[in-house]
Amino acid sequence: MTNPASYVILIHMRIMDTIQEWLKECTRLPVEITATRNPAFGDYTTNIAFSIEGDPKENAHNILSNVKKKPDIIEKAETKNGFINIFLSKSALFGAIDTVRKEGNLYGSYNKGEGKRTLLEFVSANPTGPLEVPNGRAASIGDCLYRVLSFMGYSVDKEYYVDDCGRQIKLLAKSINARMMGNNVPEGGYKGEYISELADKARVMKPQNFEEFAVSTILSLQKKTLTDFGVEFTNWVRESEIRKVCPDIIEKLKSKGLIYKKDNAVWVKTSSFGDEKDRVLIKSDGEYTYLTPDIAYHVNKFERGYDTLIDILGPDHLGHIPPLKGALEALGYPSGNLIVLISQWVTILEDGKKKRMSKREGRFITLDEIISAIGKDVAKFIFLTRKRDSHLVFDIDAAKRESKENPVYYIQYAYARMSSIERVAKERGVGINESKVKLLGNKEEMDLLRKLIHFPEIVEEVERTFEPNYIATYLTELASLFHTFYERHRVVSNDGDLSEARLTLTSAIKQVLGNGLLLLGITAPEKM
Fold this sequence. Notes:
Number of helices: 19
Shape: globular
Distance between the termini: 27 Å
Structural class: alpha/beta
Strand order of the largest sheet: 7-6-5-11-12
Largest sheet: 5 strands, parallel
């Protein structure tokens, strides 16, 4: 994605900054401005009056009584229960159309990241089977954050860590070999139809190294699934390569006096850096723990010149974060530049019943099955509708229904409907004319204008919180406002001037919907 022009910064920051500076004249305090959910309470509101000693209601009244003449972008400001509510002027609202049309596919972005190198690691599923539904959630979140951060001026790479070592890989290879020989899989091994398919392939290929055969074959399948899902990675890094530098990492920790032996195992003093206890790096049997190559891997990331590392992990990794950060701190790396995001579990409902999953037992629903059943767009949107650290219930039957129960259909239908309006307008000789937008004024039109103004703030909120659901919610609300407008008012009518005004508004709405869908990695269809 291209870094945006500075014009966007001036436009979208101007409203927020102007209001803040206007109120700051009187309070001399930092003023936090937030968008309101209800237009009856203005377009923006602030609770600054609660930060001043005394009665908030009286404070709010005094602030408005003492501030200088309001800027042109503000129609009025009023107090309610201590809050100061700001209503934008019509000229400011009409200006949203001009801004959207001038910025086009850059509307909502600005160069906040200034090219800062960021490495985003996500999915990184063990190569022991097909990608499952929770992997799809992580893929959706990671890809969306990549798009948003790139949109905001960061230089972002996407990385997949291939855990091709350890006990689970040995069990996978033994499971395939057992099936190939017509035997039962070993205790704790992997079952399922995919193991039989790999065994059939192994009979033909006769691999010399079953572990490498298993990893390479499954990894190839995972890559195809991700491609079908619309997610590509910049880098693929194997743990087997990272393990080569683990001895050096342990020596560096040892030189700092942070290594000791206990119960025939090698320990690191992560408790010296805020961890609740020390951790084992090498088990008594001589095998590395999960932590050891992970420390080496993150050192490798920093050594490649990345300023910020972002990992998206499952909730089972929560306890792993403190020792990892402690070890990085001990080695002299900025652990604060490692951001770990948790993607919560997914529960799948089918026919109203919860599906019980177990990869080892061969009971799971693959991401391929989900893509085939409902399409990647619907799946992605469902994954992105809730906060990433909230449990997600994935109802396959509801996802299949093309209705308001399936919000992405609702949004895409709005986009396609606007494309249809543009085609009709062209046939009738009606064009876009920004000089006519002042003819707009009914409630539905003004609600849409207010919504357009807030899109850049929504994108910045995602950049700040790493929560893509803000965009999904915004697009749902914008599409709903448009459908309401469309049901009550004709865009192309016998009134030529009003038709041009409404077509201009429709064009701006379509642009913002398209920008938002692009950030989510979802198709914006011209026809449905």
